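Our collaborator T.R. sent over the components below with a one-line note: 'Predict the complex.' Nothing else. No constraints on interfaces, no templates requested, no preferences about which chain binds where. So this is a plain run: every listed entity goes in together, and whatever single assembly comes back becomes the starting point for the next discussion.
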Amino acid sequence: MDYFLITTSLLKIAAILFLVILPMVSYSVYAERRVSAFIQDRRGPNRVGPAGLFQPIADMFKLLLKEDFTPANVNTFYYWLAPCLAMMPAIITIAVVPFGSTLFGVPMVIADINVGILYVFAIASLGVYGIVLAGWASNSKYPFLGGVRSSSQMISYELSLGLAVIPIFLLVGNLRLTSVVRYQIEHGWMIAPFVGDWLNPWKWLLAFPMIISFVVFAIAIFAETNRLPFDLPEAEQELAGGYHTEYSSMKFALFFLGEYAAMITGSAVIVTLFFGGWHLPLPSWHGGFHWALVDGSAPGWRGVVGGLFNIATFFAKVAVLLFFFIWVRFTLPRFRYDQLMRLGWLFFFEIALVNIFIAAIILAYVPS
Amino acid sequence: MSPLLFWPFALLMLMFGVAVVINRNPVASALSLVVSFLGLAALFMSLDAYFIGIIQVLVYAGAVMVLFLFIIMLLDLRAEEGRQVNWLALIGGIAVALALLAQILYVIHNLKSAHQAFPPLARSTFDDVRNVGLLLFGSYNLPFQIIGVLVLVATIGVVLLSRREPR
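Returned assembly:
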């Protein structure tokens, strides 16, 4: 048994879960409330601690201490199971995402498997069970409608999600997420061809299918995570909260955590695929202009600082995308349900399909 | 992967496979089948066949069973839960299953390659996605394309059947 691998993996899992994901979830809720208040010209939560920064802690205690009420007519076992099923997939997906280069020589990815992106899709597709079961077990009509809407929405958008990333893997040549990051370090970020060898005209041509991929993928992530403008499963105005209408206290909080964790994971996957992962090129003028690579491979304290810098870069990029999620939520109105399905099947699916052909044709003519 | 992990996952798969048959509630059966698929995927991964394992989760657990559950939830479950056990059918079913088991055991017993121990893989980290792709698009290209046409025909058939007649 490889005890070193097991120990470092457990340490990485604990650190990423308790030091990064859970604090990030609670502070993205806080950020959502502050940013929405700013957009709508309100004040938002600003009473607990300086600028309301301790609000998530107060929220946590509120959710834990509220009465945990189970309605009489629910199917109890599945009613309890559903919040756990909604929470878990979002968290396990992060296992294959490389969130840093190396730290003390240990690669900063929990499981570097050769089918990385398929793993992300497979586990993310299990997330629908929590929502469907919540809707069904609640034994009440609005949650049920929410659950049915959610399952058909997620199945529809998984197709465009899967097809949108194929051009990237045509380019990179395998499905490992660390190779995608490695490729972007060598050739520049997928949607930013000016990073790396920016004089290569083929790269600028290839940026077109990449940008189409990025747009389709990002919109499909919005639909997968049930965020506005695609939050039909919960739609407060028509379904009174949708699948989690009958849930209270910590069980409701688990749905909430699951939704935000899915948002964080989705942003992390977008950053890895399109924004160079943990890579941040720094301009350097030592012997002519070039991009300097900072990572954890340098000896001594420089390597440690470099590794920490990469991790910070990665989560800073994720935070920027989370801000974008919030911004969109408080800017766009909600789609109607038939519009949502038509958009998914008749629009994004075809765009993603044509995009694969465009990328393949360009790649066929690129001189290697 | 360690053979130690084979037993818990095999046990998980078989237990939930039995639960699919035993459960009277169709939703419980469908979810047991999902867990059984997850156990099967874990077994594939313990053979270093990550691609097949992940596809098992992605296609069966993530897509097919969601649709199953979707349909089951729209049915009236009370009728199914109150149904009596038909003992004759139960005994017949067990007899057929035992007969199948006996046949499989007989075939495996007479198979020569089942008695030899296979050497471990030369490299445990080979690129199975590439290998499966090369096989599908190289040696088995024609069957693959025929399956594609078959799926297309099935899709058109479904669209035709579910289309409402214009009034």
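Summary for T.R.: Chain A touches chain B through 27 residues (CB under 8 Å).
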